[in-house]
Amino acid sequence: MPRKSKRQRQCSSASMSRWRREDESEEDGSKLWGGRFTGATDPVMEAFNASIGYDKRMWKADIEGSQAYIKAIEKVGIVTAKERDSILKGLEQVKAEWKNGSFELKAGDEDIHTANERRLKELIGGTAGKLHTGRSRNDQVATDMRLWLSEALQTLRGHLVALLQVICQRAENEVEVLMPGYTHLQRAQPIRWSHWLLSYGWMLQRDVQRLDQLRQRVMVLPLGSGALAGNPFGVDRNFLQSELNMQDMSKNSLDAVSDRDFVAEFLFWASLHSVHLSRWAEDLILYCSKEFAFVTLSDAYSTGSSLMPQKKNADSLELIRGKAGRIYGNCCGFMMCLKGVPSTYNKDLQEDKEAMFDTYDTLTGVVQVATGVLSTLKIHPEVMQSALSADMLATDLAYYLVRKGVPFREAHGKAGECVALAEKKGCSLSDLTVKDMKSVHDLFGEDVAEVWNFNHSVDQYSAAGGTGLTSVQQQISDLQTWLRHHHSFANGSVVAV
Q1: CA of 275: how far to CAs of 171, 269, 284, in Å?
Q2: Diameter of the chain measured on Cα atoms
Q3: Which end of the chain has fewer CB atoms < 10 Å from its terminal CB, N or C?
Q4: 385-to-190, 198, 379 alpha-carbon distances in Å
């Protein structure tokens, strides 16, 4: 490349300087923080710093927070009633544009706060600049996130309740179906299919309870904390709390602007819930395999193979299982982000939103797919029944002796001897003769034949929480009652309906 002359270099330098001055002038007018700076921001840094690409989904929460705040600063005389009304009207116009999809993001819109305030200024003029008086993006974003997450949790809760309702309905309709219960993935004891369903139902019930408790901690107001020191104009934070339907308000402004415990807690809650659904999915993946063949997935939640025409893959369940890793990864990543952040707000905290949004989006899909899978699942009771075998009643054989007064430890050992004898003879445990069994313990009699009844075996577990018919029916009733009394939010609180 030819070397530029001195004159060319001078012209080029002047052109660049002029470009920078023009750029700075443009940027200073569009940034909430531009007055301090005299140099242009590196375009790479501009993109690196911006969050508008993902935090724009908080537009509704941002506007609601601004509407409450302008009312609060009017109450202390920072703006007049006329200015308040002008700003409120302008914010309603901004909201309408977001709703109908006509809101246009511009190059200087660094984040949702900048975008909304920029548009408000375009609509009503310089009065828009008074909205930010005494407020910082530090307390503003914390408020937006809490408002957004509170609403998101209600949506998630509705999906969980729908899944629980399907579990209860199927458990009630299919209560007579028996299947093998497993420990260590080995056949253990006969149980009811409904008992298996309800085992996950109670996990999800705890998840809903934890979600309700989490939401109480999400609904804490940070607005009025400023950048870190508080609000200098005596803004009534109780008024703000009431306007935004918050449960409580932050007690320390330094803590308020950097508190992301609620995000971390949501990410942990989502991780635990996704673990529950992953375990449920793993069971069903096994149960729908040819080796088990207990259930068949609907075609709507299965896929085929590009090579093997006979394949019907449980991709819906495999994705549910896989998404648990993604959700847990978000939790771990954000916890690592938090561990070195010093007090008050630091830009590291911008990582909170992507983790929160992605986890919500992922989990919303997971729960809805899980509900679809379960509501369309076909079970094969005859296959489940045929998988039951006499060796699964070895514990019942020990209980038979216990009921005749033999200490359990001794009875357990004698039942084990019967199992060994059957293996030695190459027959089923139930095919041992009474004479065979008497050679192990003389208290075995003709009535031992009653042990080999699977329905009798299952129904003996009638204590609360067991797999017996009356116990399972009570579980169904208890879970349905809980759902009826705890399935709705009203004014931020869980209420009976």
Answers
A1: 22, 10, 14
A2: 115
A3: N
A4: 9, 19, 12
Pairing status of strand 186-192 against strand 220-221: unpaired
CA distances to 121, 182, 195, 363, 380 from 383, in Å: 69, 16, 17, 33, 5
- What is the rounded CA–CA span in Å between residue 469 and residue 471? 5
Q: Which residues are catalytic?
A: 184, 305
DSSP H helical ranges for 339-350: none
Token output for 36: 């301090």
Per-residue pLDDT tens over the stretch 147-202 = 999 999 999 999 999 999 999 999 999 999 999 999 999 999 999 999 999 999 99
Long-range contacts of 375-380 (CB under 8 A, 24+ apart): 375/166, 376/297, 376/298, 376/300, 376/301, 377/284, 377/295, 377/296, 377/297, 377/298, 378/295, 378/296, 378/297, 378/298, 379/174, 379/177, 379/193, 379/294, 379/295, 380/293, 380/294, 380/295, 380/296
Would you state the structure tokens that stand for residue 292, as one six-digit string? 């088990």
**How far is Cα 110 from Cα 348, in angstroms, rounded to an integer?**
16
State the DSSP code for 79: S
Structure confidence by residue, pLDDT tens digits, 376-424: 999 999 999 999 999 999 999 999 999 999 999 999 999 999 999 999 9
Residues 6+ apart with CB under 8 A from 252: none
The encoded tokens of residue 286 equal: 């096994």
Q: Name the CA radius of gyration of the chain, rounded.
A: 32
Half-sphere exposure (Cβ direction) of 238: Cα atoms closer than 13 Å: 0
Cβ(497)–Cβ(488) below 8 Å: yes
β-pairing, 220-221 vs 248-249, is parallel
CB 226 within 8 A of CB 133: no
